[in-house]
Amino acid sequence: MDLFVHYLSMPYLVEGVGYTLLITVLGLLGGFAMGLVLAWMQLSRFRALAIVARGYSIIFRGTPLILQMVFCYNALPLIGIKLTAISAASLALALNEAPFIAEILRANVIGVDRGQVSAGQALGMTPAAIMRRIVAPQAIRSMVPALGNETISALKNSSLASVVAVQELTLRSTQLASATFDFFSIFFASGLMYLVLTGAVAVIQIVIELLLDLDRPPPKEQFARFMRALLPGRGESALATAGAAPQTPADVAEEILEEIETDPLPPASPKVVNLHVRGIDREARARRLAGNAVAVEVTGLRKSYGPQAVLAGVDLTVRAGEIVAMLGPSGSGKSTLLRCINRLEGWDEGAIRVGGRFLGTDEAGRALSPRDVAQMRAGVGVGMVFQQFNLFGHLTARENIAGPLRWVQGLSRLNADRRAQELLERVGLAHRADALPRHLSGGQQQRVAIARAVAPGPSVLLLDEPTSALDPELVNEVLEVIQRLAVEEGLAMVISTHQLRFAGEVADRVVFLSGGRIVEEGPADQVLNTPRHPLTARFLSKMSAE
Amino acid sequence: MALKFDTPAGVRSTGVARRLRGALFAALALAVAAGALPRKAEAAMPDGCAALQAKYPDLKGKTLTNAVNPHTPGYETIDPQDPSKYIGFDIDLGEAIGECLGFSLTYKPVTFAALLTTLQAGQADIVISDIYATKERAKAADFITYLKVFDGVLVAKGNPKKIDGINLSLCGTVAAENTGYVEVPLIQALEEECKKAGKPAPEILLFDNNANCIQAILAGRADTYINDVNTVDGAVKAYPDKLAKATAVTLPYSVGIAVPRGKTEFRDAVMAALVEIQKSGMQAEMMKKWNLPTDQIEAPKLVLAD
């Protein structure tokens, strides 16, 4: 025991810990830098880069670290690169860690919901902005545990640097054991030192996870949670001795109450009230719309996935202020058409003009880079609402609206927040402005998503089955919001929906798609009440039966 | 006690020490001879060294790197009192050669198998680490010999497997060895003979330092560890209740200093310095200090690749 304590406090071994840490830190930093590059290459749209990165991973993930150490130390001098032992060991560790870290980065970037990326694109965010504002903040949160693991593994792997004469803890321990024959005291001491180091990494990981926790409670509660995380048994027993039943934390209780609470829409504006009272003069409106400029013009659009044609020659014109309801069975190409209109997807043949401009190509018809497409999208003003809401998961309701206004439209924080607050009031969710999407009901999320799409003042709003993912009792609140927008904003809307009554009330025109083709279109009441095409009739009767 | 150590400067300068010189000197010599006072021998430089420094002026003032496998008590280990230093006979010999030629040494601890690769990669300038000069190894480095080789056969106390050398007594036993040791091929060669005699072949466990080999016997994983007799004696001294030396054998090798191939001037200088050190009796003194039998001394000769 005395010997154990003696070796535990021996400066020689403690200095060895210093070298162990040095190599680990250098190896991880280098590995992280190279891992970033490798992950970027693998995610790049250029195939050659991905192949090179994959090749690197195969080699350096597939050979033992000990060989890489020896290679960096003993083989590099043969080509004139003579590194010190510490540099060689750090280099080898970095080369070895890079592919592992790259995979962690890549997995967590891919793991961020693709819908949020689509939403970012639809808002006109450039790929770089989406990476920085949407993907990275969420990926970083989810990769902390894996990076913690990797750090501990690198710390232990650094012991292999002993083969290239780095004076780290393992090498010093074995040398000391050889000189003194105190084999066990020495290795227990150095084992404990490694445990202290890895324990410190674990504590750092817990702290980082707590700091990045989006549901971060106030500091006092945070400390209590930290202690609970460190000592899993203690917190519970303390509660038990206090004789108190486990209580729902104040913040959670508040959320539950707010969830139960109804959040009615504000009183409708006079325009909307008038509409409800007097009904709509459809013919007058149709005459007025016919004189408006063309907002969206789709001509001869064709697209197929392999042999499967999704769009088989679609022509569609939407005028400014016009509301078009798109009906059709699933798989008829409704979503694809909408995603083509704002260039979230490409197509094979045909052309789409929004506000008179070709999205995705320049005047000469050459394809634009994703960055330029994003800027064009924002410039033309096409908003999109998705079936799955696609709110940015790490941002509050207010930030979901205000963020893109700052990043894309360049509004000041003050103005962006003011606009967000105004829109949240209009959709009846001002009191939930600071809630995260995951604490909102589906209907509430979709209302925020609509507010977000409308915030930059687009000229065209595309809504892709906005109520299909909602529980039936939540459908109406969303439809009401859309209807009010239609009346108040006067922007052109293309809505794919299964809500026939809603289509009849709101839409100027109904378009019926089947098999990638528009089989019938016309004024809403005409198509809904007296369909001409048998496919439309069959679909409508089936829908009303449900 | 006819040791020719100079008393250290610190002692010489005090009046008290001068008066007690005889007594102190004897005590010091005793302590040093017992290996209990591991400190560098501060012997006077042999006479021929001045001439060598004049002949090889390039080495003067230089700092060279000595690659060692510091797991061999008596030859090279770290100093348990001050682990930043290395101690042992090989260390003293290297320091003496350096002093004679005017260069100083730093140390690079590597595994035994990496000694010569480190030298080849240019990460070290010289290897003085109880390494046997064989023709095979001479393909990687030039050797200057300085000791004859006696191996000891380390076994568990009582020698339960009755091992008595590198012979048929090893059939069916497990030997612990270090990767790269010359004993490895010698034991492997027994495989054929054992088969002929209708016995199972010996098994070899490969480690990369003495401590692990000794632990293998203590843990019952291995039956024997055949290595330098002085290392074996050291192990028996450390674990007198558990280990024993079964016997000693002579191997047809010599221990040598390895220098990079083709650097003939450096090799000549080292060899000349070694000759001077042997001639002056310094090597014998160092061997006594580290409890090595002086009859192991061998006049320097070169072992080069064919």
CATH architecture term of the largest domain in chain B: 3-Layer(aba) Sandwich
Largest sheet of chain A: 6 strands, mixed
The separation of the N and C termini of chain A measures 80 Å
User: What is the name of the CATH topology of the largest domain in chain B?
Assistant: D-Maltodextrin-Binding Protein, domain 2
CATH class of the largest domain in chain A: Alpha Beta
Largest sheet composition of chain B: 9 strands, mixed
Q: Any idea what the CATH superfamily of the largest domain in chain B is called?
A: Periplasmic binding protein-like II
Poorly predicted ranges of chain B: 1-42
| Share of helix of chain B, binned | 25-40%
Mean pLDDT of chain B: 86
Mean pLDDT of chain A: 87
Largest sheet of chain A, order of strands side by side?
6-7-8-3-9-10
- Given helix and strand content, the structural type of chain A is alpha/beta
How much strand content do the residues of chain A show? 5-15%
- What spatial form of chain B do the alpha-carbon principal axes imply? globular
Please tell me what the overall shape of chain A is: elongated
Q: What oligomeric arrangement do these chains adopt?
A: heterodimer
Amount of beta strand of chain B: 15-25%
Summed up, the helix count of chain A is 23
Domain ABC transporter (chain A): 296-540
Organism (chain A): Ancylobacter mangrovi
Pfam family, one (chain A): BPD_transp_1
Family (chain A): Belongs to the binding-protein-dependent transport system permease family. HisMQ subfamily.
Record keyword descriptors for this entry.
heterodimer; A: 546 residues; alpha/beta; MetI-like fold; Rossmann fold; 2 domains; six-stranded mixed β-sheet; four-stranded antiparallel β-sheet; 23 helices; elongated; B: 306 residues; D-Maltodextrin-Binding Protein, domain 2; three-stranded antiparallel β-sheet; 12 helices; 25% strand; globular; disordered N terminus; cell membrane (chain A); transmembrane transporter activity (chain A); transmembrane helix (chain A); ABC_transporter-like_CS (chain A); transport (chain A)
